[in-house]
């Protein structure tokens, strides 16, 4: 997955969804989901941003750019299939532990177990296969966790929990880079910390927020053809959704291209040593987090106040484009810190407004059926797919041009194209 991921809105409740919990339980569950997303994003950001680049460069320094692209592209398979399939299967799960808990626990254990085995991989192919399994676990966990929103929250409380998930994503991105960057030279320690964080957080969550038994729910029978057909949303029938999906897709590619190769950029473009780059990457994570929090906390409220979404998306795109231009003009540590802060400011606006925009272009099918796990995962593909593709695109650009400036230039292009594709949306101002 996972993105590293922007939260996606939830369908309306159905007969199969559990009754809304009392207010104190909802507050506790909201904080719990925040922590679950911290754990998910910590694994993904720490793995993609620090741990994988270090392992890959240690195996073959000369071919590290292409090899990292290969590893992340293999994980691309998990991002395409794992989350939608796990979401759909969790919808159909019938057990005394509920529909979501088995998938959350199973996903956490799979993620943590194979994460601990990652530093033991001795070849690029082995690294790719181990990371593939890690991503399967992460996607299964995320699909089940996100589906708890329509399962347990009334419509009037879903905006609040979505905001909490967004904060968890932001914090998790920073935590992963800080933990991995700060302990990268200490053997197994970063892997142990991230694995323990995952198991403890998910274990506490499912214990304190018990999923009602689903053993007595009606069993849904469907053919393989109908099962697969459920993942398709026609762009012709739902053009606004298609434009919003494409806009998010391009925006995420633009944002994550430079993030994935951040460690190599610090070493080969800025000129830091391996040890300095690991430490400085952690500092950049903190700066990015501050920028995101400063802009995200108020922009959603302001958008609701003025009743407009698209101008905020355009503004955030301009800010992120300016941020991506800074390392081109100022290739120094000061320049990349300014880049991280400004990129955080722009992305903070985007991550809060895009969620609201997506809720207003959902096809009716995604609002009224009892298939939350599947439907939310379909929306999540607009984030997970480009996040998985961006390393390969960036690697091709670096190989063709012979340097990292092309990564920043392409980021500007993708981000601005994402802003342009928001304009045709008719259902949103």
Automatic annotation (TrEMBL):
GO terms for molecular function: transmembrane transporter activity. Residues 1-21 are annotated as: Disordered. The keyword Transport does not apply. It is found in: Cell membrane. One of its GO terms (cellular component) is plasma membrane. The chain crosses the membrane at residues 34-56, 68-89, 101-122, 161-182, 188-208, 241-259, 279-300, 312-330, 336-357, 404-422. Keywords: Membrane, Transmembrane, Transmembrane helix. The keyword Membrane applies. Residues 25-429 form the Major facilitator superfamily (MFS) profile domain. It holds the Pfam family MFS_1. It is a multi-pass membrane protein. InterPro entries: MFS, MFS_dom, MFS_trans_sf, Sugar_transporter_CS. This is MFS transporter. The lineage of its organism: Bacteria, Bacillati, Actinomycetota, Actinomycetes, Propionibacteriales.
């Amino acid at each position: 997955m996972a993105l590293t991921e922007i939260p996606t809105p939830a369908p309306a409740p159905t007969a199969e969804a559990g009754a809304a919990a009392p207010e104190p339980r909802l507050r506790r569950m909201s904080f719990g989901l925040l922590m679950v997303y911290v754990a998910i994003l910590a694994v993904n950001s720490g793995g993609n941003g620090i741990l994988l680049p270090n392992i890959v460069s240690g195996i073959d320094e000369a071919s590290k750019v292409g090899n990292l692209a290969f590893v992340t592209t293999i994980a691309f398979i998990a991002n395409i299939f794992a989350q939608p399939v796990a979401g759909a299967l969790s919808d159909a799960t019938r057990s005394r532990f509920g529909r979501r808990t088995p998938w959350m626990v199973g996903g956490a254990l799979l993620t943590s177990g194979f994460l601990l085995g990652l530093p033991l991989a001795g070849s690029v192919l082995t690294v790719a296969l181990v990371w593939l399994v890690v991503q399967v676990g992460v996607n299964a966990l995320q699909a089940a966790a996100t589906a708890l929103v329509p399962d347990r929250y009334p419509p009037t409380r879903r905006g609040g929990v979505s905001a909490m998930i967004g904060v968890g994503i932001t914090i998790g991105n920073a935590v992963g880079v800080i933990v991995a960057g700060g302990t990268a030279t200490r053997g197994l320690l970063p892997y142990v910390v991230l694995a323990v964080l995952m198991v403890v957080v998910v274990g506490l969550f499912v214990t304190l927020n018990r999923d009602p038994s689903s053993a007595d729910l009606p069993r849904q029978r469907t053919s393989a053809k109908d099962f697969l057909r459920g993942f398709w949303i026609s762009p012709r029938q739902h053009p606004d959704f298609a434009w919003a999906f494409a806009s998010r897709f391009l925006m995420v590619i633009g944002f994550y291209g430079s993030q994935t190769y951040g460690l190599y950029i610090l070493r080969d473009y800025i000129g830091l040593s391996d040890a300095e780059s690991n430490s400085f990457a952690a500092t950049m994570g903190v700066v990015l987090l501050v920028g995101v929090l400063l802009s995200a906390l108020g922009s959603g409220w302001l958008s609701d106040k003025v009743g407009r979404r698209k101008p905020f998306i355009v503004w955030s795109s301009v800010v992120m484009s300016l941020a991506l231009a800074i390392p081109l003009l100022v290739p120094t540590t000061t320049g990349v810190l300014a880049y991280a802060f400004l990129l955080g400011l722009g992305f903070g606006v985007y991550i809060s407004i895009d969620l609201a925009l997506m809720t207003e272009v959902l096809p009716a099918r995604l609002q009224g059926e009892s298939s939350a796990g599947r439907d939310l995962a379909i929306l999540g593909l607009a984030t997970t797919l480009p996040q998985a593709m961006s390393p390969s695109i960036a690697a091709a650009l670096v190989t063709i041009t012979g340097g990292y400036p092309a990564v920043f230039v392409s980021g500007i292009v993708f981000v601005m194209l994402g802003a342009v594709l928001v304009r045709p949306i008719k259902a949103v101002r």
